[in-house]
Amino acid sequence: MSRLLGLAPVLDGNTRLLVLGSFPGVASLRARQYYGHPQNHFWKILGALWLLPLPTMAYPERVAALLDHGLGVWDVYGACEREGSLDTNIRNGEVNDFAWVQRSCPRLEAIAHNGGESFRHARHTEKLGVPVYKLPSTSPANASWSFDRKLAAWSEVLLRHT
Questions:
Q1: Catalytic residue among 40, 89, 92, 96
Q2: Are 14 and 67 a contacting pair, CB within 8 Å?
Q3: In sequence order, what DSSP letters do the residues of 10-66 get, joined into one string?
Protein backbone atom coordinates (compact mmCIF):
# COMPACT_ATOMS: atom_id res chain seq x y z
CA MET A 1 0.00 0.00 0.00
CA SER A 2 1.49 3.35 -1.02
CA ARG A 3 1.66 6.44 1.17
CA LEU A 4 -0.76 9.18 0.13
CA LEU A 5 -0.22 12.88 0.79
CA GLY A 6 -3.18 15.15 1.52
CA LEU A 7 -4.02 18.59 0.21
CA ALA A 8 -2.63 21.91 1.42
CA PRO A 9 -4.91 23.74 3.86
CA VAL A 10 -7.26 26.42 2.60
CA LEU A 11 -7.24 29.12 5.29
CA ASP A 12 -5.95 32.59 6.00
CA GLY A 13 -5.70 35.20 8.74
CA ASN A 14 -9.46 35.86 8.52
CA THR A 15 -10.52 32.24 9.02
CA ARG A 16 -13.06 32.03 11.83
CA LEU A 17 -14.28 28.45 11.32
CA LEU A 18 -12.08 25.58 10.21
CA VAL A 19 -13.78 22.48 8.79
CA LEU A 20 -11.64 19.38 9.12
CA GLY A 21 -12.30 16.27 7.08
CA SER A 22 -10.45 13.04 7.65
CA PHE A 23 -8.47 12.65 4.42
CA PRO A 24 -9.38 13.42 0.78
CA GLY A 25 -11.02 10.64 -1.17
CA VAL A 26 -9.66 9.31 -4.44
CA ALA A 27 -11.69 11.77 -6.56
CA SER A 28 -10.52 14.73 -4.46
CA LEU A 29 -6.87 13.68 -4.59
CA ARG A 30 -7.08 13.15 -8.34
CA ALA A 31 -8.66 16.59 -8.86
CA ARG A 32 -6.46 18.23 -6.16
CA GLN A 33 -9.65 19.76 -4.75
CA TYR A 34 -11.36 19.50 -1.40
CA TYR A 35 -14.67 17.64 -1.62
CA GLY A 36 -14.08 16.81 -5.27
CA HIS A 37 -16.47 13.85 -5.49
CA PRO A 38 -19.57 15.05 -7.37
CA GLN A 39 -21.89 13.32 -4.87
CA ASN A 40 -20.30 14.92 -1.79
CA HIS A 41 -22.74 17.39 -0.23
CA PHE A 42 -20.14 19.87 1.09
CA TRP A 43 -20.37 22.45 -1.72
CA LYS A 44 -24.12 21.99 -2.07
CA ILE A 45 -24.64 22.66 1.67
CA LEU A 46 -22.50 25.81 1.64
CA GLY A 47 -24.16 27.01 -1.55
CA ALA A 48 -27.61 26.59 0.02
CA LEU A 49 -26.59 28.47 3.17
CA TRP A 50 -24.76 31.29 1.40
CA LEU A 51 -27.14 31.50 -1.58
CA LEU A 52 -24.28 30.88 -4.04
CA PRO A 53 -24.07 28.40 -6.95
CA LEU A 54 -20.95 26.81 -5.43
CA PRO A 55 -21.37 23.34 -6.98
CA THR A 56 -21.24 24.84 -10.49
CA MET A 57 -18.48 27.39 -9.85
CA ALA A 58 -14.86 26.78 -10.79
CA TYR A 59 -12.77 25.49 -7.89
CA PRO A 60 -10.70 28.70 -7.46
CA GLU A 61 -13.96 30.67 -7.16
CA ARG A 62 -15.27 28.20 -4.54
CA VAL A 63 -12.06 28.58 -2.54
CA ALA A 64 -12.35 32.37 -2.74
CA ALA A 65 -15.96 32.14 -1.46
CA LEU A 66 -14.81 30.01 1.49
CA LEU A 67 -12.18 32.53 2.47
CA ASP A 68 -14.56 35.47 1.93
CA HIS A 69 -16.92 33.84 4.45
CA GLY A 70 -14.17 33.17 7.01
CA LEU A 71 -14.27 29.42 6.40
CA GLY A 72 -11.17 27.28 6.07
CA VAL A 73 -10.83 23.60 5.15
CA TRP A 74 -8.18 21.02 5.90
CA ASP A 75 -7.98 17.43 7.09
CA VAL A 76 -6.92 15.74 10.30
CA TYR A 77 -4.49 13.53 8.38
CA GLY A 78 -1.71 15.02 6.30
CA ALA A 79 -0.68 11.60 5.02
CA CYS A 80 -1.83 8.00 5.33
CA GLU A 81 -2.03 4.65 3.62
CA ARG A 82 -5.43 3.74 2.20
CA GLU A 83 -7.02 1.63 -0.51
CA GLY A 84 -10.05 3.37 -2.01
CA SER A 85 -11.77 6.30 -0.31
CA LEU A 86 -13.38 4.90 2.84
CA ASP A 87 -12.21 6.24 6.20
CA THR A 88 -12.31 2.72 7.60
CA ASN A 89 -9.43 1.85 5.24
CA ILE A 90 -7.09 4.56 6.57
CA ARG A 91 -3.88 3.08 7.98
CA ASN A 92 -0.84 4.73 9.57
CA GLY A 93 -2.38 8.19 9.50
CA GLU A 94 -0.11 11.13 10.23
CA VAL A 95 -2.06 13.83 12.10
CA ASN A 96 -1.58 17.41 10.92
CA ASP A 97 0.00 20.12 13.10
CA PHE A 98 -2.96 22.03 14.52
CA ALA A 99 -0.78 24.36 16.61
CA TRP A 100 0.21 25.86 13.25
CA VAL A 101 -3.48 26.68 12.63
CA GLN A 102 -3.66 28.77 15.77
CA ARG A 103 -0.65 30.82 14.67
CA SER A 104 -2.00 31.21 11.12
CA CYS A 105 -5.61 32.01 12.05
CA PRO A 106 -5.68 34.61 14.85
CA ARG A 107 -9.45 35.11 14.40
CA LEU A 108 -10.27 31.38 14.73
CA GLU A 109 -13.54 30.91 16.65
CA ALA A 110 -14.32 27.22 16.17
CA ILE A 111 -13.41 23.89 14.61
CA ALA A 112 -15.99 21.69 12.87
CA HIS A 113 -15.15 18.05 12.25
CA ASN A 114 -16.73 16.70 9.07
CA GLY A 115 -17.67 13.18 10.16
CA GLY A 116 -16.76 10.64 12.80
CA GLU A 117 -13.23 9.75 11.70
CA SER A 118 -12.24 13.40 11.80
CA PHE A 119 -13.92 13.87 15.18
CA ARG A 120 -11.90 10.97 16.63
CA HIS A 121 -9.06 13.51 16.70
CA ALA A 122 -10.96 16.20 18.57
CA ARG A 123 -8.51 15.80 21.46
CA HIS A 124 -5.93 17.50 19.22
CA THR A 125 -8.18 20.34 18.10
CA GLU A 126 -9.62 20.97 21.58
CA LYS A 127 -6.11 22.13 22.57
CA LEU A 128 -6.69 25.23 20.42
CA GLY A 129 -9.12 26.53 23.06
CA VAL A 130 -12.09 27.12 20.74
CA PRO A 131 -15.42 25.27 20.50
CA VAL A 132 -15.17 21.97 18.63
CA TYR A 133 -18.20 20.55 16.82
CA LYS A 134 -18.96 17.15 15.34
CA LEU A 135 -20.93 17.45 12.11
CA PRO A 136 -22.38 14.64 10.00
CA SER A 137 -20.12 13.63 7.15
CA THR A 138 -20.94 15.22 3.80
CA SER A 139 -19.52 12.14 2.08
CA PRO A 140 -21.73 10.08 -0.23
CA ALA A 141 -20.79 7.13 2.03
CA ASN A 142 -22.98 8.76 4.73
CA ALA A 143 -26.18 7.76 2.96
CA SER A 144 -28.14 7.33 6.22
CA TRP A 145 -28.36 11.15 6.47
CA SER A 146 -30.47 12.93 3.85
CA PHE A 147 -29.24 16.17 2.32
CA ASP A 148 -31.87 18.14 4.26
CA ARG A 149 -30.82 16.56 7.55
CA LYS A 150 -27.14 17.32 6.86
CA LEU A 151 -28.05 20.88 5.85
CA ALA A 152 -29.92 21.44 9.12
CA ALA A 153 -27.01 20.14 11.23
CA TRP A 154 -24.38 22.12 9.31
CA SER A 155 -26.43 25.32 9.26
CA GLU A 156 -26.38 25.63 13.06
CA VAL A 157 -22.58 25.84 13.12
CA LEU A 158 -21.96 27.64 9.85
CA LEU A 159 -24.47 30.41 10.47
CA ARG A 160 -22.94 31.03 13.91
CA HIS A 161 -19.34 31.30 12.70
CA THR A 162 -19.34 32.41 9.04
A1: 40
A2: yes
A3: B--TT--EEEEESS--HHHHHHTSTT-STT-SHHHHHHHHHT--GGGS-HHHHHHHH
According to DSSP, the residues that pair with 18 across neighbouring strands are 72, 111
CATH assignment of the domain containing 156: 3.40.470.10
Residue-range definition of the domain harbouring residue 22: 3-161
pTM of the full structure: 0.96
Per-residue pLDDT of the chain (162 residues; tens, 9 = 90+): 789 999 999 999 999 999 999 999 999 999 999 999 999 999 999 999 999 999 999 999 999 999 999 999 999 999 999 999 988 899 999 999 999 998 999 999 999 999 999 999 999 999 999 999 999 999 988 999 999 999 999 999 999 998
Question: How many domains does one find in the chain?
Answer: 1
40 is catalytic: yes
Burial class (CB in 10 A: 0-12, 13-18, 19+), 107: exposed
Contact 141, 119 (CB under 8 A): no
3-state helix vs strand vs coil in the chain, percent to 5: 40, 20, 40
